[in-house]
């Protein structure tokens, strides 16, 4: 008897109608109604992404996708076809209704940026490429008013030279941790810098402070705030990928009680992932040379998908699923490959909502064609 099966199955709802900057990729997206193949070895652990919606408004890559107030805010990104001019639109996707609508206008024109929810009200977009240069500014969308605001730097702020291909992780409602960035010859030596970004929503200001610690130079990586195993309990911010090393790197550690614990958001999915990894073979090392992949934290797991590998010259766009399990010390990696080339993605995003992991956008196998689909990760035990 097969222990675990994974498949994306079509949802019986109407599909929605719809009509080179930094970090360019070298590397086809599944069309409507395309069957999704089971990923994983026969008799082993399988998985795939199930399409639940399709809208041309969502066809982009190197965007941000952030859950706020039960909706996904999709901001900026590249529309594909080799375009280097990023989009300035904001799209709201309602996962409960499966519908996408265009949101507030006059948003920041950005790609290769990152975003974080603040105070249950604001969506803060940090840095990114505007089509001509890398920025370190902060733009905020007030979800209550549905309007964008340009916040200003507070006195004493010491921002990085410019940010793209970085990560921005929420530590609290007033503090974000910014790590890594792309850079040329002049800035590359400082691309391992770590910054604390303090926010004052009342004053509409922000302030950068460079931390004393540094990491390896990296960009196009992902970050995950996870429970810290071992003798120092608490939380640690881990960086995955964005350089040749397969090892995650710590970009911050907070002792027990310093990080406000959120209520468990995905109990069933966490249980499924725990059962899934029992079907795999754990390893101490993760993927080497992976960038522009996605990462979502689900309980004690970091779930990574897709991206571009730096380890080969051809067929660089990936469709592999990796699970980083922190329940034991040392943590273990579990790799679940996929034979379905239609699932290759780069510059995409994953977002957790209502015990489901969603996949939004990204370029397909050719590295140029953006996917208009929204998918959900299905695991059948």
Automatic annotation (TrEMBL):
Signal peptide: none annotated. The keyword Repeat applies. GO terms for molecular function: cyclin binding. Keywords: Kelch repeat, Repeat. It comes from the Eukaryota. SUPFAM superfamilies: Galactose oxidase, central domain. InterPro entries: Gal_Oxase/kelch_b-propeller (IPR011043), Kelch-typ_b-propeller (IPR015915), KLDC9 (IPR042941). Gene3D superfamilies: Kelch-type beta propeller. Interacts with CCNA1. PANTHER family: KELCH DOMAIN-CONTAINING PROTEIN 9. This is Kelch domain-containing protein 9. The lineage of its organism: Eukaryota, Metazoa, Chordata, Craniata, Vertebrata.
């Amino acid at each position: 008897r097969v222990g675990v099966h994974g498949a994306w199955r079509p949802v019986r709802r109407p599909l929605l109608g719809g009509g080179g900057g930094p970090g360019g990729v070298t590397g086809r997206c599944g069309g409507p109604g395309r069957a999704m193949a089971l990923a994983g070895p026969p008799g082993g652990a399988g998985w795939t992404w199930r399409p639940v919606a399709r809208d041309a408004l969502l066809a982009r890559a190197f965007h941000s996708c952030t859950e706020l107030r039960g909706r996904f805010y999709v901001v900026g990104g590249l529309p594909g076809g080799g375009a280097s001019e990023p989009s300035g639109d904001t799209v709201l996707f309602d996962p409960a209704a499966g519908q996408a609508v265009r949101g507030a206008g006059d948003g920041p024109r950005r790609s290769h940026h990152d975003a974080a929810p603040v105070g249950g009200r604001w969506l803060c977009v940090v840095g990114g490429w505007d089509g001509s240069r890398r920025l370190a500014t902060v733009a905020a969308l007030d979800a209550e008013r549905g309007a964008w605001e340009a916040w200003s730097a507070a006195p004493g702020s010491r921002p990085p030279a410019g940010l793209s291909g970085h990560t921005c992780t929420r530590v609290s409602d007033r503090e974000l941790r910014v790590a890594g960035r792309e850079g040329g010859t002049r800035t590359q030596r400082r691309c391992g810098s770590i910054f604390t970004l303090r926010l004052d929503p009342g004053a509409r200001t922000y302030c950068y402070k460079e931390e004393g610690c540094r990491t390896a130079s990296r960009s196009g990586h992902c970050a995950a705030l996870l429970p810290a195993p071992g003798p120092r309990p608490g939380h640690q911010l881990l960086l995955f990928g964005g350089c040749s090393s397969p090892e995650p790197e710590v970009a911050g550690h907070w002792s027990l009680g310093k990080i406000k614990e959120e209520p468990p958001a995905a109990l069933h999915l966490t249980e499924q992932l725990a059962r899934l990894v029992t079907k795999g073979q754990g390893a101490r090392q993760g993927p080497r040379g992976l960038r522009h992949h996605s990462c979502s934290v689900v309980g004690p797991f970091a779930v990574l998908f897709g991206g571009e590998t730096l380890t080969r010259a051809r067929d660089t766009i990936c469709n592999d699923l990796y699970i980083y399990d922190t329940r034991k010390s040392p943590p273990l990696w579990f790799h679940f490959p996929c034979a379905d080339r239609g699932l290759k993605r780069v510059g995409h995003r994953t977002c957790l909502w209502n015990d489901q992991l969603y996949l939004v956008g990204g370029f397909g196998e050719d590295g140029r064609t953006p996917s208009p689909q929204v998918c959900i990760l299905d695991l059948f035990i």
